Amino acid sequence: MGSKQIAQETFDDAVQENITEFEMDPEEAVREAVQQFESQGVDLSNIVKAVRPPASENGQRQKHQILLTLDSLSRAVAEQDVAQLPEQLSALAAQCKEQLAFRYLAGRNGAYPVLFSACQLAAGDRDLLLQAFSTLSALLDGQPDLLDAAGQELLLQSLRERREDAEMTLAGIRCVRHACLKHEQNRQDFVKAGILPLLTGAIIQHGDSADVVRTAASALRVMTFDDDIRVPFGHAHDHAKMIVLENDGLRVLIEAAKAFTDNSGVLSELCATLSRLSVRNEFCQEIVDLGGLNFMVTLLADCMEHPDVVKQVLSAIRAVAGNDDVKDAIVDAGATELIVLAISQHLGNPQICEQGCAALCVLALRKPENCSVIMEGGGALAALQAMKAHPREVAVQ
């Protein structure tokens, strides 16, 4: 059973009651309301925990700030007042980025159709359209259900027509990524409409832009997720195959990595995406043939101080080691010593311990000679230390 939910109005009324009936100051009234509902098992993640402005003199109930901003944007759109749009879009984007509760409240009160209209209104003004897309991206974060077919087409059209514009490409891909997280239907719709070549094309075209490469790689990875609990079977495997076979995805990602040898954020993202694409024996082998394994081993050695990178590289090594021939290549490249070193250096990090132990496990599977190398390199001791360090972490154990 999921947590109980309440409407924003219910919370606001409880806060107001604490102020009027029990003479609490506003901050105390909010704290008391939060405590009251949480003790009843209510999920308040989508609730704005702030005092709504007091009622006006005629008794009319006031709105939260984000809804007042949305009203101003709605008026500007309705009146086609282009001069007012930048200020209102900027204010709405800033408030949406603050927390999910603000985005949720705006979304429930018609923010998406207003923003879609703002995007249409801004179509001829590049800077204004960029701002509208950035605001749309902020609204869609955690709310993929808001995007409709017309919105999908608008994003695809922009990515096709403005593919040479790095900033527009980045804004569009961010919207796509937010719309596809935990939303299988959006993923399938975008893939059918041709998003995959647009994403790999963006990485090639803007290979010198860290933000575009990182975000496009992340969006490709999201297309291989199976994270929508409403859908019994997704197309994650099919999408991974399409990225590799139809869009040369492995080569695109490995080539992109060569331009960012000193950018741990980009490299971490590229490794994470490569691990999601290692779904077939021949794909694992192709990663080795393209130089991906050497890149990963070098990266692990050079970025041992960056936990995020270490975790993603270990995950990628674990994934490509699904191929028995690749297991030998990984061991021959000296990766086992680096994996043991990673576990030892980051013993307090449960995710690194989990991925490191899992990588050693896969390398040892059906390979007695690899077991000897791992034992001699201190792998068993590292695994024991990890178990002792994280007795309550099921995944590590």
How would you characterize the overall build of this protein?
The protein has a domain at 278-396. It is 69% helix and 0% strand. The protein contains 23 helices and no strands. The mean pLDDT is 94.
Q: Kindly report the average pLDDT value.
A: 94
Residue fraction in strands: under 5%
Which regions are unreliable across 5 or more consecutive residues at pLDDT < 50? none
Rounded to the nearest angstrom, the distance between the terminal CA atoms is 28 Å
Q: Decide which structural class fits the backbone.
A: mainly alpha
Number of strands: 0
- Characterize the overall form: globular
* Helix percentage range: 55-70%
Number of helices: 23
Radius of gyration, in Å, reads 25 Å
Q: How would a crystallographer describe the biggest sheet?
A: none
Following the backbone from N to C, one meets helices and strands in this order, namely: HHHHHHHHHHHHHHHHHHHHHHH
Task: Produce a short descriptive summary.
The chain has 397 residues and is mainly α. It has a domain at 278-396. It has 23 helices and no strands.
What is the secondary structure topology, with strand pairs?
Blueprint: H1 8-20, H2 26-39, H3 65-78, H4 85-98, H5 100-108, H6 111-121, H7 126-140, H8 149-161, H9 166-180, H10 184-192, H11 195-205, H12 210-222, H13 236-245, H14 249-257, H15 264-277, H16 281-289, H17 292-302, H18 307-320, H19 324-332, H20 335-345, H21 350-364, H22 368-376, H23 379-389
